[in-house]
Structures are given as structure tokens and as C-alpha cells.
Amino acid sequence: MAIKTKENHLKFNTKWEYASAPESKDHIELKDQYELFIGGEFVKPKKGKYFPTINPATGKKIASIAEASQEDVDKAVKAARTAYDKYWSKMPAKERAKYIYRIARMLQERAREFAVIETMDGGKAIRESKSVDIPLAAAHFFYYAGWADKLDYAFPNRNPKPLGVAGQVIPWNFPLLMAAWKIAPALATGNTVVLKPAETTSLTALKLAELIQEAGLPPGVVNIVTGAGATGAAIVNHPDINKIAFTGSTNVGKIIQKAIAGTDKKATLELGGKAANIILEDATIDQAVEGIINGIYFNQGHVCCAGSRLFVQESVEDIVIKKLKARMETLIIGDPLDKNTDIGAINSSEQLKTIKKYIKIGKTEADFYESSCPIPSNGGFWCKPTLFTNTSQSHRIVQEEIFGPVLAVQSFRTIEEVLEKANNTYYGLSAGVWTDKGSKIFRMTSKLRAGVIWANTYNKFDPTSPFGGFKESGFGREGGLHGLAPYLKLN
Ligand code: NAD
Q1: Catalytic: which of 113, 270, 317, 472?
Q2: Calpha distance 245→266 (Å, rounded)
Q3: Average pLDDT, the chain
Q4: Is 290 annotated in the active site?
Q5: Confidence of residue 6 (pLDDT cuts 50, 70, 90)
Q6: Residues 252-299: tens digit of each pLDDT
Q7: How large is the C-alpha radius of gyration of the chain?
Q8: Is 236 a domain residue?
Q9: 233 and 195 belong to one structural domain
């Protein structure tokens, strides 16, 4: 696949050549068919329907996944309610914590297996699954296990009580990590769970179900139902769900908000983004260029907080763009299981179609550049890192979330100008600021309307930090102490 060859080496004028270094798949166990995880057991879907999960790096089917109907969702909610009433709400908090710690430790022990499956099912580079997704997922379970018996300290004089059954629906860009973001705080606060992974990336959630079964969690405390939008809607609309936790697109978030209006379901919605990554003239340019690369091309741009709008101060624009293009040339796209790969496969053929549509639109709006790095021609879903310069605020590639490796660049002269441009968006999930001056960081971060702002770094996550959006990027916070509150009744 996309290994740097001698020719490429000369062509790209880079220093390094890499031999292929594929991660072994020998140690993983995958079934041909996966069932629903309800009441502590794997059960067949009532209607007997299955859908394929595809390896986006090859276009080939990995396994069949059960499609949960409304009846299956109802069964899962009943199992979660019984588990809540019978075991989980009655169990001393320190005992609940032990189960959550156990999940964290078992995830750590099986990290390699989870990383390989995540990469095969979702297309992301193994380096990312190994160093970001799986360790962070385990860290979330560790972190929230620690809070389980300390809720009275977290919310003094507020008499924290669980809500009951949480319905959780997640996207495909960080499949296991999103499951951990949802399940860990729900369990720590004493709620039980019905979770639906995205239809293109169900495997690690189902592996997590196996792990939860092995960990001996009481049956029904965690239920995993698979399927597409209709299954998600059946969870959202189920009358016996007390709380909806959704991460996904703003469009579906709006549908969910309408669906639960007038009910007493609590909700947190983590939605889309169009982050501004802002480079001031006093920034360390090489470090900032790495930050731009990490901000948009990391995980093929499938990141809600991706720095997809780049703002560069006019005096350093030429040098930043020159260095950025040179760095783009060195990126390796290809077999996600290869440890040298920087950019893996696009998650699905549908997402690739969407990205290509935007690239076509962008070409009519601005100046286009793409890395000349080779991409495999093997039936997988691939997209080169791309860059649009001379863009303006009204362009669709600047306004709309693309969720792919597509960067739109604008220049600016003053801090006031860039703050206005950066905030001129429907979204408000994240932003980045690169400067040598702490005073400018404070000035800008207090004026940027974004839930998460990085300074002189990008895309860094930690279970102790709250995460969430402003405006159409949603509401509610996940992570940190703040991530406990949406799962609790507080006096
Ligand atoms: P999506 O909204 O299409 O799907 C998300 C989940 O919702 C999937 O599991 C899907 O099956 C389900 N779903 C679809 N229609 C539904 C309905 N009517 N009712 C209930 N559930 C339904 O999003 P996606 O394409 O999977 O993910 C990409 C989006 O997620 C991007 O917009 C991205 O910005 C966002 N995202 C946000 C965050 C965050 O923390 N803010 C994190 C990751 C991804």
C-alpha cells in the first residue's frame, strides 16, 4: 500500500523511507455474526435482520451485525429498568466502582485487540487507535470509577440521585471512546444503559459487551443494541428512558430535541463543529504547522472538533502555507493497520461521497491543493489531504461541516478581525490559538465562542476535562466532574 518508496522519497524530498510494518491480526477473535447484547446475554434480533460491517480499507465485509427493531429496543429498555430496580440502584456505590474499575483494567489488558478491531472496522490509523482511542477509553472508566462513591463530595448538599435508564446513541469517528464517554459516567452515577453504536462501527462496542459479560456486571446494567437511525429513534422515543445522551450530527440532534420536547427526558447533545485554528504571527511556525496537520488530517478529518477553518495572520501566511504544503507531501496514506500510516481510510463510501461533493464545491469557490502522496487502489475508501486557499466567510466549504481531510484557509490582519470571523459560524465546539504571548491567549480564549479551546496544541483530550459545545454544537458537558451532573437528579 502507501509505503514511502525510493521514488517517492526523491519526489517528495523527504528524509525517511519506511518498510511496511503491519500490525498483526493473529491475536484477535472476530465472529462472522454478532447478536444484540440484552440482559447480559447475546440474543438474536426478533425480526432476524442483519447488516454487514465493512472494512473501509478494503471495501470487504468483516461480519454481519444484528439490526435491532423497536421490539428489541423495548426488550433492552425493560432489561435496563429491571437491572436498575433490582441491582444497580441498590448496590453500594463503592461496589459499583469495583465493576467500573474492572472494565477499565480489562480494557487495558486487551488494548491491542481492541485497537486492531477499531482500525479494521473504522479505518483509522493503528497508531491512533493504539495511542489515543483505546487508552483514553480505559482512562474514562478509571476516572469515573473513582467518582462513584464520592458523588456527595462532587455535589455537596445537593443529594445526588441517579435518573434511571439512560439511552445513548453514538457516532462512528471514535467508536469505543464514545461508548466509554457515555457508559462510564452513567454507571458511576448509578444509572443503567441502553447504548447504540453507529451502524458502520459496531464491532468494538460489541467486544466491549463481551468484556462486560466477562467482568460479571449484573445482567441488564449495560445493553448494546445495534442498527441504524431507526434503532436510534426507537431508543430516543421509548417512554421508559429517563435520559438521552447523543453524539452525532447537528441535523439528527435537532430531530432528537424535537422528539423529546414535552417529555421529562433529560438530554445532552454533542453535535457538529467547524473549528477555527488561529495562527498569530508570533507563533512558533513549525510547531503550529504540526498542530494544523494534527488538527485536520488526524483521523482523516473525522473529528467533530477538527480545525477545519485555518486563520493565518497575513504577515506569516506565505511561510505557513509553504511549510504546510511541504508537510502534507510527507503524509503517508494507506493501510490503516500499518504502523507508519498517518492517514487511514475514510469511514464509509457514503462519507467519501460527501467529502468529494464538498471538494467539488470548493473547487468552484477557492484555490485547491492536494498532497501528491499516493493512495491505494484496492476497493477501499481513500481521500488525500486537501487544502483550499483564498476562501471567504460565505463559502460553503467554510460554513458547513465536511468531516473529512479538507482544510479551508483565510488570512487576517488584526485579532478583532479574526475573533469576529472565527465566531461567525453556527457551530461552537472547539478552537485553537497559536501564539508566543500568554496575554493574547487569555484575550482570545475569553472571546472565542467555543466549548473547548486549545492553546499551542490541538486535539488533546483528557477524562478530567469537560467537553461540549456552544450554539448548534449542542449542549451539556461530557468528561470531568461536569460529565456526572447530566446523569443525576440534584436538589
Ligand atoms: P449521525 O448524526 O448521522 O449519527 C450518529 C448516530 O445517530 C448514529 O448511531 C446513527 O445511527 C444515529 N441516528 C441517526 N438518525 C437517528 C435518529 N433519527 N434518531 C436517533 N438516532 C439516529 O452522525 P455521524 O455521521 O455518525 O457522526 C458524525 C457527526 O457526529 C458529525 O457531525 C460530528 O461533528 C458529530 N460528532 C460530535 C461529537 C461531539 O462530541 N460534539 C463527537 C463526535 C462526532
Answers
A1: 270
A2: 8
A3: 96
A4: no
A5: very low
A6: 999 999 999 999 999 999 999 999 999 999 999 999 999 999 999 988
A7: 22
A8: yes
A9: yes
306 and 236 share one domain = no
Residues 262 and 282 in one domain: no
Residue 375 predicted with pLDDT over 80:
yes
Give the DSSP H or E segment for 61.
Answer: strand 60-66
Cα of 48 from ligand 1 centre, angstroms: 25
Q: How many CB atoms lie within 10 A of CB 80?
A: 30
Give the three cell numbers for residue 249.
Answer: 450530527
Q: How far is the CA of 304 from the centre of ligand 1 (A)?
A: 10
Q: Is 64 part of any domain?
A: yes
pLDDT band at 18 (very low <50, low <70, confident <90, very high): confident
Q: For the CA atoms of 349, 355, 361, 362, what is the dihedral angle to 10 degrees? A: -150
Query: Which of 252, 254, 298, 461 has the most ligand 1 atoms within 8 A of CB, as the residue to mutate?
Result: 252
Residue 10 has pLDDT above 80, yes or no: no
Say yes or no: CB of residue 253 within 6 Å of ligand 1.
Answer: no
Asked if 236 and 296 sit in the same domain, the reply is no
| Active-site position among 23, 118, 199, 304 | 304
Residue 198 near ligand 1, beta carbon < 6 Å: yes
Say whether both 254 and 280 belong to one domain: no
Domain of residue 345, CATH code: 3.40.309.10
pLDDT higher than threshold 80 for residue 372: yes
Active site residue 383: no
Q: Is the pLDDT of residue 5 over 70?
A: no
Closest C-alpha residue for ligand 1 atom 30: 248
- Whether 170 and 247 have beta carbons less than 8 Å apart is answered as yes
